[in-house]
Amino acid sequence: MTDIFDHASELEELHRQRALESHKSRESSPSDDCVSCGAIIPQARKKALPECNLCIGCATIKELRRKP
Ligand SMILES: [Zn+2]
Q1: What are this entry's molecular-function GO terms (predicted)?
Q2: Is a pLDDT exceeding 60 seen at residue 22?
Q3: How confident is the model at residue 59 (pLDDT cuts 50, 70, 90)?
């Protein structure tokens, strides 16, 4: 069973690296991507929060960390 979990974390790492690479190579529209993880921020979120540069997941984590 451990093999499956090892493989899963490997894939996750690969996906993260690819996301970061594509984030770097797409400098034409950096504001569409989360500055923290490189995920694409939904247009609805960009409309509601034009200054926002984090995806919903990272923004939630940031909010949680800010609270005591
Ligand atoms: Zn993010």
Answers
A1: zinc ion binding
A2: yes
A3: very high
Instruction: Quote the ligand 1 centre to 48 CA distance (angstroms).
Output: 17
Question: Around ion ligand 1, which residues have CB less than 5 A away?
Answer: 34, 36-37, 39, 55, 58
Decide if 31 contacts 20 (C-beta within 8 A). Answer: no
CA 36 to ligand 1 centroid distance, Å:
5
Q: How far apart are CA 43 and CA 56, in angstroms?
A: 12
> Quick one: pLDDT band at residue 56, thresholds 50, 70, 90?
very high
Nearest to 38 by CA among 27, 48, 51: 27
